[in-house]
Amino acid sequence: MPTRWYNLVPDLPMPPPPPLNPATLLPLVAEDLESIFPRSLIEQEMSLEKYIAIPKEVLEVYKLWRPTPLYRARRLEKLLDTPARIYYKYEGVSPVGSHKPNTAVPQAWYNAQAGVKKLTTETGAGQWGASLAFACKLFDMEASGVRASYDSKPYRRMLMELWGGTVHPSPSTVTQAGRDILAKDPNTPGSLGIAISEAVEVAASDPTAKYALGSVLSHVLLHQTVIGEEALQQLAMVGETPDLVIGCTGGGSNFGGLAFPLLREKMAGNMNPIIRAVEPEACPSLTRGVYAYDFGDTAGLTPLLKMHTLGAQFIPDPIHAGGLRYHGMSPLISHVKELGLIEAVAVPQVDCFKAALQFSQTEGIVPAPEPTHALAEAIKEALKCRETGEGKVILTALCGHGLLDLPAYDKFIHGALEDIPLPSAKLDAAFASLPSRSSTSL
């Protein structure tokens, strides 16, 4: 099991653009974030150290499920009749059933060390909210969350409450941001951007509370690099080197956690895999968004982040991959894509569930809707290998199981799941609200 996290930033040929204070448009300083984050996590967010030691208290909790297994999908390969070798790093063995505790545990620990009594957060599919509730219970803290998929995924809410978390549907009447949005559209399906606004508002107004987030920012992706570090060791044990690394992307934590250690090895000349991010066609920030400064939330309470974005006012359609319904992409992943170090594609929802059925009916694991995007792309590449005869090694991260997402599978099996087209007009309207479109200083 890794004893340190990997920070990609020092190895990059160019540093990423800094976050900006929206009031001054100057690069963010640590003091700008102290109302919502403890100093230790702010230092990690801004760190230029290549490696950061994992605290022993965090390692002890990690031992509940880490190292996670790396499997070869032999039965799927047989079904596809492909010479490709498909490996998947399975994060569904964690207590919550996803990769999210990899960062929830250290975030809760660092906050507890700083004397914080309560953490607020947003959650899309509910995996992050459940992870933070679990982590807070371990360190005797209170967890409060707002979730975008409150109605469609009730068992995630129950799991959060089982671990002592308090959960509100988003948008809610608990916050001013939520009340304002409901006043404009009482029937809004919500979004991660809206949920972030509410969680940040609660944290900023409560002196005993801080905010924790499950993706997007660099310290979150830093904690997730245990995935890629373990995968490198496990592949070495069987003498394999990946030709293609594929991960699903919403905010970027699962993808960054798998890909960043492999990107380090690629930049060092030790291997040369294609690294590809896969996102939903209904929320395609990397493939159809613009690279610009934008707010990380709908109400404009966060710093301005340089990222691939669909616009903070963009409300994604209610696809079942709730964890991928975010208008922006991790600034670090966005920067890496701008440097040409990774690729990105978007896939429709129905194709993802078709891939999930093939996977679950051969490998026996029901995947969460989020990693089905990566599975769909992995299967597509494996079928190409069948045509060319190439025995490529494909590596992906199965970031969680879908045992609490069975209503989505029920819809798909019975023909009630549809792809929702994303018209350009909807994107244009959201792009028009970008801060960079209204300020010549950005």
UniProtKB/TrEMBL annotation:
**Oligomeric form and interacting partners:** Tetramer of two alpha and two beta chains.
Name the UniProt record assigns to this protein? tryptophan synthase
Q: Which Pfam families match?
A: PALP
Question: Per UniProt, what is one GO molecular function of this protein?
Answer: pyridoxal phosphate binding
The role this protein plays is: The beta subunit is responsible for the synthesis of L-tryptophan from indole and L-serine.
Residue intervals of the Tryptophan synthase beta chain-like PALP domain: 64-400
Query: What are its cofactors?
Result: pyridoxal 5'-phosphate
Give the CC-aspect GO terms: cytoplasm
Q: What is its EC number?
A: 4.2.1.20
UniProt KW keywords: Amino-acid biosynthesis, Aromatic amino acid biosynthesis, Lyase, Pyridoxal phosphate, Tryptophan biosynthesis
* Record lineage: Eukaryota, Viridiplantae, Chlorophyta, core chlorophytes, Trebouxiophyceae
Q: Does the keyword Transmembrane apply?
A: no
Q: In which pathway does it act?
A: Amino-acid biosynthesis; L-tryptophan biosynthesis; L-tryptophan from chorismate: step 5/5
Q: Under which main EC class is this enzyme filed? A: lyase
Catalytic reaction list: (1S,2R)-1-C-(indol-3-yl)glycerol 3-phosphate + L-serine = D-glyceraldehyde 3-phosphate + L-tryptophan + H2O
The UniProt similarity line reads: Belongs to the TrpB family.
